[in-house]
C-alpha cells in the first residue's frame, strides 16, 4: 500500500565500519579474482571521497530482461555490467552476495550473485533468449519494496535498463513511495533514457526525499560499459552521500 509521502515507512540504522574497511576483504577477492578486486578497490576510493568509507548496505540489482536488451545480452555487455556492479557491492554488502532481480513482462526468479558464481552467470542463470518480454519495471520495484519492509540496512538498488517502462505512471508512483523507505535507486542506463532523467529530477514536493540518481546524465555523460573502473565507481557513489543526509533528516535513517 502507498502511504503518506510525508511519513517514513521504515527506519533503519546507518552502519559504518570504524576502520573504513571493505565489507568483503580485498585480499580474499584478489585470491580468486584480481580484476574484481580492482573494481572493489576503485569503489573504496570513490566512497572515501564522499565520506562514506566503511558504509554498509544491502545491494540489489534490478535487471531489464526485455526484448530490446537482446543485443546487450548477446554481446556480453550485461555480464560486464553485472560484474562492475558486483565489484562495487563487495565494498559495502557484508555477505558479498547481490540479489539480481531480472524482469520483463513479469518479474523473473531472483539470482544470487557473488564471488562463487559471478563468472558467466548471466548466460548460465539469468538470460532466457527464447522468453524475453516487455518492461514491467513497476512490478520489479514492488519486489524491492517488499525487501525494504524487512531490511535492517539501507538498500542501494541499481536498475540496469535501456528504455522506458510499460507503465510510466505506475513506475513513477512506486518510485515516489520508495522514498519513504531506506532505498536509494541508482538507474544505470545502457543508453540515455529521458524518462529516467525525469525521475531523477522529480520535484521533492512529490516525495519524502530525493531517492533517485540516474547515470548517464546530461552533466555526467559516462558510458557505463566502456568507462574505467574508477569512473564507474564514481558514478555509483555520486549522490549517495546526499541521499544518506536527506534520509537521516527525513527519519528514514538514524
- The succession of helices and strands, N to C, reads HHEHHEEHHEHEHEHH
CATH topology: Rossmann fold
Major sheet: 6 strands, mixed
Strand order of the largest sheet: 3-2-1-4-5-6
Shape: globular
User: By helix and strand content, what is the structural category?
Assistant: alpha/beta
- The CATH class, by name, is Alpha Beta
Percent of residues in helices comes to 25-40%
Low-confidence stretches: none
Q: Write the CATH architecture name.
A: 3-Layer(aba) Sandwich
Let me know the number of strands.
6
- What is the radius of gyration computed over CA atoms, rounded to a whole number of angstroms? 17 Å
CATH level 4 superfamily: von Willebrand factor, type A domain
Average pLDDT for all residues? 96
Cα separation of the termini: 24 Å
Strand-residue proportion: 5-15%
How many independent structural domains?
1
How many helical elements?
10
Q: Would you give an account of this structure?
A:
The chain is α/β, with parallel strands linked by helices and 254 residues long. It has one domain: Rossmann fold. Helices cover 39% and strands 14% of the residues. It is built from 10 helices and 6 strands; from the N terminus they run ααβααββααβαβαβαα. It has helices at residues 26-32, 34-49, 70-74, 77-92, 121-126, 137-148, 168-178, 194-200, 229-237, 240-250; strands spanning 58-64, 97-103, 111-114, 155-161, 183-189, 212-215. Strands 3-2-1-4-5-6 form a 6-stranded mixed sheet, with helices on both faces. Helix 2 (34-49) crosses helix 9. The protein starts with 25 loop residues before the first helix and ends with a helix.
Amino acid at each position: 500500500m502507498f502511504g503518506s509521502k510525508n511519513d517514513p515507512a521504515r527506519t533503519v540504522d546507518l552502519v559504518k565500519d570504524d576502520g573504513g574497511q571493505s565489507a568483503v576483504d580485498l585480499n580474499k577477492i584478489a585470491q580468486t579474482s584480481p580484476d574484481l578486486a580492482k573494481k572493489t578497490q576503485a569503489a573504496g576510493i570513490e566512497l572515501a571521497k564522499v565520506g562514506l568509507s566503511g558504509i554498509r548496505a544491502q545491494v540489489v540489482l534490478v535487471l531489464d530482461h526485455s526484448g530490446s536488451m537482446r543485443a546487450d545480452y548477446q554481446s556480453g555487455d550485461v555480464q560486464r555490467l553485472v560484474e562492475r556492479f558486483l565489484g562495487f557491492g563487495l565494498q559495502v554488502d557484508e555477505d558479498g552476495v547481490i540479489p539480481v532481480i531480472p524482469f520483463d513482462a513479469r518479474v523473473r526468479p531472483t539470482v544470487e550473485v557473488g564471488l562463487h558464481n559471478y563468472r558467466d552467470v548471466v548466460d548460465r542463470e539469468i538470460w532466457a533468449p527464447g522468453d524475453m518480454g516487455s518492461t514491467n519495471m513497476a512490478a520489479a520495484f514492488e519486489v524491492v519494496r517488499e525487501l525494504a519492509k524487512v531490511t535492517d540496512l539501507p538498500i542501494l538498488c541499481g536498475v540496469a535498463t535501456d528504455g522506458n517502462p510499460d507503465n510510466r505512471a505506475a513506475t513513477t508512483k512506486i518510485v515516489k513511495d520508495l522514498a519513504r523507505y531506506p532505498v536509494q535507486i541508482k538507474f544505470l542506463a545502457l543508453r540515455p533514457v529521458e524518462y529516467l532523467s525525469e525521475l531523477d529530477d522529480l520535484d521533492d514536493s512529490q516525495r519524502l526525499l530525493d531517492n533517485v540518481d540516474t547515470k548517464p546524465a546530461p552533466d555526467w555523460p559516462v558510458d557505463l560499459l566502456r568507462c574505467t573502473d574508477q569512473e564507474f565507481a564514481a558514478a555509483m557513489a555520486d549522490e549517495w552521500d546526499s541521499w544518506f543526509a536527506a534520509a537521516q533528516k527525513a527519519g528514514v535513517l538514524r
